[in-house]
Design goal:
alpha/beta, TIM Barrel, 2 domains, eight-stranded parallel β-sheet, 15 helices, 10 strands
Length: 388
């Protein structure tokens, strides 16, 4: 029987906010008692995680005194050492406190924008203190309910100004840190700026230090918009901008559900895992998801184990796909190349263009060819369902 036990080389990580979720939702209060950051590290160590990530206020409450902060960090550091966990990524909570009700970097209030920069610089310091190499930005409040309230172009410029400022801060401090932007179409705002990974990639190209900034795509956020998540990940990878990734699951068109990875759309999850493994993605496989509200903390452990187990099962299925003789024969047939178009391939030249304009194509013969995608897809389903 295959071994689906998580190991450090798999780089499975969870946020404090994921396993630390108390199950509160807009219609009901907590169903699980809160645990300290150190307690959550011990929980993650028990289930076999590689690392733990945090928002600044997941670790240190926003109103903590210096003495309280020092005690929390001491306990957290001990738990990391005891369980052998690392902190690959950190981020800032720029959405929870009432001061961010109209955004952080894009707020109309200059005091809010300045406070957001201060909070982020301090949070970057905290992340680096614990070894983080990736710093994620999710602008959950960077948007509007009414476009009467903000000039969208000005909001984009304000966001750019903030990112340029923070890149300079990282460089000035000499930190070994990359920044990753996370897109989401809506919730908690009615509309959020830069709502998809593609928007974020375009925005990055306008920054003063685009080489420092990449993306952190999240399954649920793209599926909320009805977008093929793997395609966005592929674009980020091809652009050299896939700095981090958030794995979970989601029904399209619904609120941000943060379901256990692979629990809703196993086929989409398979293609995602296959892509990451085929390109040898070497970053964290971060699970930004929550256990059902029905669970106690034993159920939270089941949730965390399930995320990692499903990824490893799909990783094995991806290897089977790549080794399956019939599937690979079909792919070879589909991608067959007799070499006749080689003279037109590659970089443009006037000679190529002239020759291509004169080339005769038998449209009827070409279009009459069946591509056998139905067979290929069914073989994939058979593989996923264990029938081959």
């Amino acid at each position: 029987m295959s071994d689906f036990t998580p190991k450090p080389e798999h780089k499975f990580t969870f946020g404090l906010w994921t396993v630390g979720s108390t199950g509160r939702d807009p219609f009901g209060g907590p169903v699980r008692s809160p645990k300290s950051p150190a307690e959550l590290v011990y929980l993650l160590g028990e289930v076999g995680a590689y690392g733990v990530n945090f928002h600044d206020n997941d670790l240190i409450p926003i109103d903590a005194t210096p003495a309280e902060a020092a005690a929390i960090k001491k306990d957290f550091r001990k738990a990391l050492a005891d369980m052998g966990l690392v902190v690959p990524m950190a981020t800032t909570n720029l959405f929870g406190d009432p001061i961010f009700k109209d955004g952080a970097f894009t707020s109309n209030d200059p005091k809010v924008r300045s406070y957001a920069l201060q909070k982020t610089m301090r949070s970057i310091d905290l992340g680096v203190e614990f070894g983080a190499k990736i710093y994620v930005f999710w602008g959950g409040r960077e948007g509007t309910e009414t476009d009467s309230s903000k000039n969208a172009a000005l909001a984009i410029r304000r966001n750019r100004e903030a990112m340029d400022f923070l890149c300079e801060y990282v460089l000035d401090q000499g930190y070994d840190l990359k920044l990753a932007l996370e897109a989401k179409p809506n919730e908690p705002r009615g509309d959020i700026y830069n709502p998809t990974t593609g928007h974020m990639l375009a925005f990055i190209s306008t920054l003063a230090h685009p080489e420092m900034v990449g993306v952190n795509p999240e399954v649920a956020h793209e599926h909320m918009a009805g977008i093929n998540f793997m395609h966005g990940v592929a674009q980020a990878w091809e652009s050299g901008k896939l700095f981090h990734i958030d794995l979970n699951d989601q029904y399209p068109g619904r609120y941000d559900q943060d379901l256990r990875f692979g629990s809703r759309d196993i086929k989409a999850a398979f293609y995602l895992v296959k892509f990451l493994e085929d390109v040898h993605y070497d970053g964290s496989r971060h699970f930004d998801a929550h256990a059902y509200r029905t669970e106690d903390y034993e159920g939270v452990k089941d949730f965390a184990r399930g995320c990692m187990r499903t990824y490893l099962i799909l990783k094995e299925k991806a290897a089977q796909f790549n080794q399956d003789a019939e599937i690979q024969a079909l792919l070879a047939e589909i991608n067959a190349d007799d070499g006749s178009m080689a003279p037109f391939a590659g970089k443009y030249t006037p000679q190529k263009a002239a020759a291509l304009k004169e080339q005769a194509f038998d449209r009827q013969a070409i279009s009459a060819r069946g591509l056998r995608y139905e067979r290929l897809d069914q073989l994939t389903i058979d593989l996923l369902l264990g029938a081959r």
